Structure formats: structure tokens, C-alpha cells
């Protein structure tokens, strides 16, 4: 999307990638009423009776209830704060047009048509256009991931995100997260070079995770396909399903080609950013431009300890716990290789892949990321 500024004549290219699914996400979350929530918990209790011989199921129920309550509370807060002015994609498109019409002669809004469409579109623009190219991904971390995989290697391209997706954890790495929702602040933005993770040849901007939490994400996609199961219901069912099945994987993890860690692990977060999964701060010491990968490994734990771990892990306080210290490995490194005798689920910026090996290396200051301008004497202008 090529944009020419009227006064200075410089080229300014903007692509706003708007995924239709992001607008249904907000309405889906809002559709989870208290009665619907109680009904789903009752359904979970019925399933519990089938497994009442397992003494750990009381713990399972508590995890489901607590996790669901926190998720609904968080979703309700975020939706009220950030989505009140967002009715549908047409309204957002009109808002963008209104903002840009008096600023630039030319710009483009492109609505993606499917998986990897954003990557292909952005790459085609980079190959065919000259000048200073700016791309805005309107969506979640998955949308941002696709755009980044399109601009990698093009020095004249930079990227930012208008965070209207299911998961928007990458913007939590920056001060004044709310500014990312205001496109007028994006116009006067500052550039910061950030690191990327090279994950089996694809690039990740935020985090790659394997193990229990990745399996929950995979199962959630499956449960979403069930009739009358919305996003929150799929999440609850996925946690329950994952807890009553095998909760750990056996991995060989090689760090920087000189340290091998072998064992049964609950999960492993390989991070550029701090948080993932809608706010779980798995790598609290991570910085997006420090030149290191943050590796957090959680060893196999009992369901009882898992209850304590979940709360601390969400808050980013798990490294401070004396009780859980022996179950956590945390390191900073440059490369990681993971091997397993069985194929395992890999979650890259929220997208699911299945492999039997994983090779991750750091690409230091690989892209130019646009940080919205903070000092505009106007109210936040949400699209």
C-alpha cells in the first residue's frame, strides 16, 4: 500500500491487515453469560462423575472453575475497554479512511482471505514497491506473525500492529499498550529494532511454546468446531480434556549446542516476549531487543502443585517461588534444539504446528517495529 505525503512528497506505505475473525471474537466473548457459564461447569461435573475413581479430579474441577472465572473476568474487562467502539469490519474500515483521507494521497486496506495470505501479500508489496514501506497488522499475534514473515529481509519495510485479535501479547512488551489501539498515534511513530526467533525456518515475534499449554491450544481449536461451543467453552473443555490425559512430554533439549537437558516436562516456553496465551507471563525476564532467547522449562509436576503453579505462572511470579524452585529451569541463550521420540505440538505466536523436532535460533534486531507516539494532546482514538 503506497502512500505519498502531500507536503513532503515522501512515500509512505501502509497496509492494514484486517481479519474478519477478530470482530467475531469480541462478540463471542461477550456472549458468554453467567447462565451459560454455569451450564458448562455443570457439564464438566457430569464428565467428572465418569472419572470419579481418579482422586485428582477434585483438583481438575478447581482448576477449570478458577481458570474460567479469571478468563471471563479478564475478557469482559478487555472487551469493555477496547471494543466498545468496534461494531464490525466496515465501521473500522470507514474509520481508517476518515483518518487517512486528509493525510496521504494513497494508501491501501487489504482484508486477508485465509491462512498465510498476509505473508504473501506483504511479500509481493515489498518485492514490487520502493520507498519507505509501513505495514500495520490489524489483528492478533498470529496476524502480526504473518506480516513479519512477509517483510523479513527488506530493509525499507517496517511493521506495527493494531491489536484487535484473539491474543495480543506482543504489545504488552511495550510501555503504554493502549496507544497501539490509536491509529493516529501510529502515524507519528518511533522505530525500534526488535529480535525474532527463527523457528524451523519460520519467524516468531513473540514466543514459541511446547508441552501442556500447547496441547490445550491445539485441543481448543478442535472443540471450537463442536456445535454450540463458543471460544470460552472450548477453552474450558480443552483444559479439562488435557488434564485427564497425559500431561507431560519427554524431551531432549540442547542449549547453545553445549548443554543437554533430558527429562519429562510439563511445558517449555521459548520466548522473545514476556507473555503469551492472553496474559500468562511465562518469561518475566524477557526483553524483545536484548539479543537473547529466554527459556522457561517446567518439569513434570503433580496436579496439586499445578494448581499453585498456574496462578504464579500467570502473574510471572513462578521464578520467585521457593516451593516450585526445583521444578523450574530458566535460562538465557542464543539457540535451542528440541528432540522427541514422538511428534509433539508446537505453538508459534498462537499458531499450531506438529513436529518431532524443533530448532530455534535468535535473529538479533531483525525487523523495524513501529512504536506509537505517546505525546499527542488528544484522547485515544480507537478504530
Structure report:
The protein has 383 residues and is of the alpha+beta class. It has a domain at 207-365: Sandwich (Tumour Suppressor Smad4). The chain has helices at 21-30, 34-50, 57-82, 89-100, 117-128, 141-151, 183-187, 212-223, 231-243, 303-315; strands spanning 12-18, 108-110, 132-139, 157-163, 190-199, 202-204, 207-211, 249-255, 259-271, 293-299, 328-333, 335-348, 351-371. Strands 1, 2, 3, 4, 5, 6, 7, 8, 9, 10, 11, 12 and 13 form a 13-stranded mixed sheet that branches.
Notable traits:
single chain; 383 residues; alpha+beta; Tumour Suppressor Smad4; 13-stranded mixed beta sheet; 29% strand; disordered N terminus
Low-pLDDT segments: 1-35, 46-61, 78-86
CATH class of the domain at 207-365: Mainly Beta
The name of the CATH topology of the domain at 207-365 is: Tumour Suppressor Smad4
- C-alpha Rg, in Å? 21 Å
Give the distance, in angstroms, between the N- and C-terminal Cα atoms.
19 Å
Please tell me what the overall shape is: globular
User: Would you identify the CATH architecture of the domain at 207-365?
Assistant: Sandwich
Kindly state the percentage of residues in helix.
Answer: 25-40%
Summarize model confidence as the mean pLDDT.
78
Q: Please give the largest β-sheet.
A: 13 strands, mixed
Query: How large a portion of the residues is in β-strands, by DSSP E?
Result: 25-35%
Question: Structural class per helix/strand content?
Answer: alpha+beta
Number of separate strands: 13
Amino acid at each position: 500500500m503506497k502512500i505519498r505525503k502531500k507536503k513532503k512528497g515522501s512515500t509512505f506505505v501502509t497496509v492494514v491487515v484486517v481479519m474478519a475473525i477478530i470482530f467475531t471474537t469480541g462478540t463471542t466473548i461477550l456472549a458468554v453469560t453467567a447462565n451459560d457459564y454455569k451450564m458448562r461447569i455443570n457439564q464438566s461435573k457430569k464428565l467428572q462423575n465418569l472419572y470419579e475413581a481418579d482422586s485428582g479430579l477434585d483438583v481438575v474441577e478447581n482448576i477449570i472453575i478458577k481458570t474460567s472465572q479469571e478468563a471471563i473476568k479478564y475478557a469482559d474487562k478487555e472487551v469493555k475497554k477496547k471494543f466498545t467502539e468496534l461494531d464490525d469490519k466496515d465501521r473500522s474500515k470507514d474509520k481508517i479512511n476518515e483518518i487517512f483521507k486528509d493525510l496521504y494521497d494513497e494508501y491501501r486496506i487489504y482484508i486477508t482471505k485465509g491462512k498465510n495470505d498476509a505473508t504473501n501479500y506483504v511479500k509481493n508489496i515489498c518485492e514490487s514497491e520502493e520507498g519507505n514501506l509501513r505495514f500495520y497488522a490489524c489483528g492478533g499475534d498470529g496476524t502480526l506473525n504473518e506480516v513479519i514473515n512477509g517483510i523479513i529481509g527488506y530493509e525499507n519495510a517496517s511493521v506495527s500492529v493494531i491489536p484487535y485479535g484473539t491474543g495480543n501479547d506482543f504489545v504488552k512488551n511495550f510501555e503504554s499498550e493502549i496507544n497501539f489501539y490509536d491509529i493516529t498515534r501510529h502515524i507519528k511513530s518511533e522505530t525500534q529494532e526488535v529480535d525474532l526467533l527463527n523457528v524451523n525456518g519460520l519467524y516468531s515475534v513473540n514466543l514459541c511454546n511446547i508441552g501442556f499449554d500447547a496441547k490445550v491450544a491445539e485441543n481448543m481449536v478442535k472443540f471450537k468446531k463442536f456445535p454450540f461451543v463458543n471460544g470460552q467453552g472450548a477453552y474450558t473443555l480443552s483444559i479439562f480434556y488435557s488434564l485427564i490425559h497425559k500431561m507431560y512430554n519427554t524431551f531432549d533439549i540442547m542449549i547453545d549446542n553445549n548443554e543437554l537437558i533430558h527429562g519429562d516436562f510439563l511445558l517449555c516456553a521459548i520466548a522473545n516476549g514476556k507473555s503469551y496465551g492472553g496474559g500468562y507471563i511465562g518469561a518475566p525476564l524477557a526483553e524483545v531487543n536484548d539479543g537473547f532467547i529466554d527459556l522457561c522449562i517446567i518439569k513434570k509436576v503433580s496436579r496439586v502443585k499445578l494448581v499453585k503453579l498456574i496462578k504464579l505462572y500467570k502473574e510471572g511470579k513462578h521464578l520467585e517461588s521457593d516451593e516450585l524452585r526445583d521444578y523450574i529451569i530458566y535460562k538465557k541463550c542464543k539457540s535451542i534444539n528440541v528432540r522427541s521420540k514422538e511428534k509433539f505440538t508446537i505453538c508459534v505466536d498462537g499458531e499450531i504446528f506438529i513436529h518431532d523436532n524443533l530448532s530455534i535460533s535468535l535473529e538479533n534486531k531483525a525487523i523495524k517495529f513501529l512504536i506509537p507516539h505517546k505525546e499527542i494532546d488528544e484522547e485515544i482514538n480507537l478504530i
